[in-house]
Amino acid sequence: MTGIIGAMSSEVEKLLEQMEEDKAEKISGITYHSGMLAGRPCVVAQCGIGKVAAAVCAQTMFLRYAPSELINVGVAGGIGSGVHIGDVVISSGLVQHDMDTTALGDKKGFISGLSLVVIPASKRLSEITVHTAEKIYGSEKVHLGIIASGDQFISDGKELGRIREDFGASACEMEGASIAQVAYMNGVPFVVIRAISDNADEKASGNFSEFCEKSAHETASLITGILPKL
Ligand code: ADE
Questions:
Q1: CB 154 near ligand 1, within 6 Å
Q2: 11 included as an active-site residue
Q3: Of 173, 175, 198, 201, catalytic
Q4: Ligand 1 atom 9, closest CA
Q5: What is the 201 CA–ligand 1 centroid distance (Å)?
Q6: Is 201 in the pocket of ligand 1 (CB under 6 A)?
Q7: Which CATH class is domain 2-211?
Q8: pLDDT digits over 127-138, tens only?
Q9: What is the pLDDT of residues 158-205, one digit of tens each?
Q10: C-beta 204 within 6 A of ligand 1
Q11: Quick one: which of 10, 18, 32, 87 has the fewest CB in 10 Å?
């Protein structure tokens, strides 16, 4: 079974429309929909925004459904001049940009429980996803890179510059690295797939309102494209 988590309804609704659902159960306020999607058994949940909600959802999914891999799908702010609205960023690894114990001598983003900064995504899942995405969107719109998560909507150049400088990230969002940490702790392969809704700059909130739904919906065909290959 494949676990799929999105934060907002726009990030999972197209998948749920296509799912042949067997069961829906609500745990701690989050509904887990299980059934068949693109010929594969899946469990899909909308976790809500932010790292805590995402961690609760991912860990519950592991304990209840024991997925063999986990996909986090949604939108993100693009970082860097080559990453445009409508592009797709696929994780090579995840960082928590708001994790900061530098005062204790650690590197920025160091996660002491895991003893690392970058949580590596599954190479196999990332490769399958990049390959499939290039066929759907064209290779110029597909980027493999670091995705940075934190409990902040990034909408200013200074913050954005800090995240780019500290971590070399290609996108920022609010759940992926939390789901990655839970997956890593459970020894389960994962990939994060993010369609770009804005560039995390001063125009981000306006662009996000305009492009969030469209970008989010576009990822559904990528997910249904990779599921038969898993
Ligand atoms: N998700 C989409 N755009 C984002 C941004 N600019 N910051 C954080 N999360 C996002």
A1: yes
A2: yes
A3: 198
A4: 173
A5: 10
A6: no
A7: alpha beta
A8: 999 999 999 999
A9: 999 999 999 999 999 999 999 999 999 999 999 999 999 999 999 999
A10: yes
A11: 18
Quick: pLDDT tens for 60-118: 999 999 999 999 999 999 999 899 999 999 999 999 999 999 999 999 999 999 999 99
165 is catalytic: no
Domain ranges in the chain are: 2-211
Write the DSSP string, the chain.
Answer: -EEEEESSHHHHHHHHHH-EEEEEEEETTEEEEEEEETTEEEEEEE--SSHHHHHHHHHHHHHHH--SEEEEEEEEEE-STT--TT-EEEEEEEEETT---GGGTPPTT-BTTTTBSSEEPPHHHHHHHHHHHHHHH-GGGEEEEEEEE-SS---SHHHHHHHHHHH-EEEEESSHHHHHHHHHHTT--EEEEEEEEE-SSTTHHHHHHHHHHHHHHHHHHHHHHHGGG-
Q: CA-to-CA distance for 13 and 17, rounded, in angstroms?
A: 6
The pTM of the full predicted model, rounded to 2 decimals, is 0.97
